[in-house]
């Protein structure tokens, strides 16, 4: 029998990597870097052999798509922010077997899920950035899932639940990552500058993010999932928070009762709200 050994909501913003360079942001994301590394350490300690990443920076239109290549190898430059992430080499084993199993399980719920084995299909930085800190030298497989922006919350919930069933029926020990922001109202182009890293796009969004963290810490998940559809849209969710829908579907939705442990303080980045937290099983 397979097992989910870790489930976490994580950040992948470029400011994390930029903070390791000389400049005004240097050192300011040390807590986030330490948290990402801690997630990787815990996954490895618990025997994880695959990272399943719900990646909100890989946006798809229709259907649900997984990068199920047997090997992920390339040199990545962000098309969105080439001045922030460029020439970043990556090399990780993939998990086509688990990809196929998830697709088959999801089909039982009427979901259209494709597990792609296409060598020219690259990873996106919602997967590459966390793997840089968690999966050094590629000790674990990587299976990346796109965020379908025209899927309903219910479809994403069902997909997460199908992932849980497929993992349970497999021989894998899986660390699952919801890779994306909380609120995601980015600053306008004319506001871009050194101060952009330290603000959330609106006070409403910041307050809603903090409220969500309170609900998580108090284990009031049934209330959280009831507000999740509106939170996803009214707070400008990155890819409409598809990663969070999938993660809570995997955890059991309103039936989830575990502890949420915040591994770094809530922080802003270019208007978005960010957190790294483990949802204990």
TrEMBL record:
<dbReference type="Pfam" id="PF02900">
    <property type="entry name" value="LigB"/>
</dbReference>
<keyword id="KW-0560">Oxidoreductase</keyword>
<dbReference type="GO" id="GO:0008687">
    <property type="term" value="F:3,4-dihydroxyphenylacetate 2,3-dioxygenase activity"/>
</dbReference>
<protein>
    <submittedName>
        <fullName>3,4-dihydroxyphenylacetate 2,3-dioxygenase</fullName>
        <ecNumber>1.13.11.15</ecNumber>
    </submittedName>
</protein>
<feature type="domain" description="Extradiol ring-cleavage dioxygenase class III enzyme subunit B">
    <location>
        <begin position="7"/>
        <end position="276"/>
    </location>
</feature>
<dbReference type="InterPro" id="IPR004183">
    <property type="entry name" value="Xdiol_dOase_suB"/>
</dbReference>
<dbReference type="InterPro" id="IPR011984">
    <property type="entry name" value="HPCD"/>
</dbReference>
């Amino acid at each position: 029998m397979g097992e989910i050994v870790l489930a976490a909501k994580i950040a992948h913003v470029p400011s994390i990597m930029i903070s390791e360079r000389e400049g005004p942001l240097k050192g300011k994301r040390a807590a986030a870097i330490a948290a990402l590394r801690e997630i990787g350490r815990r996954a490895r300690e618990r025997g994880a052999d695959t990272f399943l990443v719900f990646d909100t920076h890989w946006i798809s239109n229709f259907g649900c798509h997984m990068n199920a290549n047997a090997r992920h190898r390339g040199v990545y430059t962000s098309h969105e922010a080439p001045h922030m992430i460029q020439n970043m080499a990556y090399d990780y084993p993939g998990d086509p077997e688990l990809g196929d199993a998830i697709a088959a399980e999801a089909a039982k719920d009427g979901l259209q899920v494709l597990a792609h084995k296409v060598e020219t299909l690259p990873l996106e930085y919602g997967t590459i950035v966390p793997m840089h800190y968690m999966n050094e030298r590629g000790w674990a497989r990587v299976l990346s899932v796109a965020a379908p922006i025209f899927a309903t919350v219910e479809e994403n919930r069902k997909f997460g639940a199908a992932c849980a069933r497929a993992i349970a029926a497999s021989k894998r020990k899986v660390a699952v990552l919801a890779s994306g922001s909380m609120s995601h109202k980015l600053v306008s182009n004319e506001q871009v500058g050194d101060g952009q890293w330290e603000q959330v796009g609106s006070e409403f969004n910041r307050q809603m993010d903090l409220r969500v963290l309170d609900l998580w810490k108090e284990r009031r998940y049934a209330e959280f999932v009831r507000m999740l559809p509106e939170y996803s849209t009214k707070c400008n969710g990155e890819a409409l928070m598809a990663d969070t829908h999938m993660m809570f579907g995997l955890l059991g939705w309103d039936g989830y009762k575990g502890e949420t442990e915040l591994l770094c303080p809530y922080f802003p980045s270019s208007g978005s709200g960010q957190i790294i937290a483990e949802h204990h099983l």
